[in-house]
Amino acid sequence: MWQQQLIQLGARQRGFHLISDEIESALASMTKLSIGLLHLQLQHTSASLTLNENADPTVRQDFESWFNHAVSEDTRYFRHTYEGADDMPAHIKSSLLGTSLMLPIRNGRLALGTWQGIYLGEHRDHGGSRKVLLTLQGE
């Protein structure tokens, strides 16, 4: 069985944000599967998805600090700055982390580890709302 749903995430400030609850809520509205896979595709090129620590918010703060250090906005050779200094760095961060995740489903729920959560990496100062396409397959 295949199912698909597009959800819209509200605008968030720049940084890394737990969106596990929003994904779980969307999953709950789909037909319950005993076993399967959920593919998440973020439909943007200046934000990202990743799976990491869900308990300590300092992990998300450290992610933001590291990525801002690794991909600096003041890089003089960037030419793609049409939408501001954060434009090209946001695209690079999105490519480094990726825009999709494949997650296991068990008994109708995400089968994540104890300390795992889904992050939205918002890499723009004013990124706006974001769309995530959920594709569920299984039985």
Topology:
Elements: E1 2-9, E2 15-18, H1 20-28, E3 35-42, E4 47-53, H2 57-70, H3 87-97, E5 100-106, E6 109-110, E7 116-122, E8 130-138
Q: What is the general shape?
A: elongated
Fourth-tier CATH superfamily name: YjbQ-like
What is the CATH first-level class name? Mainly Beta
Outline the biggest β-sheet.
5 strands, antiparallel
Task: Report on this structure.
The chain has 139 residues and is α+β, with helices and mostly antiparallel strands. The protein is 24% helix and 37% strand. The protein has one domain: Jelly Rolls. It contains three helices and eight strands, in the order ββαββααββββ. The chain has a five-stranded antiparallel sheet with strand order 1-8-3-5-6, covered by helices on one side. The protein has a three-stranded antiparallel sheet with strand order 2-7-4, with helices on both faces. It comes from Shewanella avicenniae.
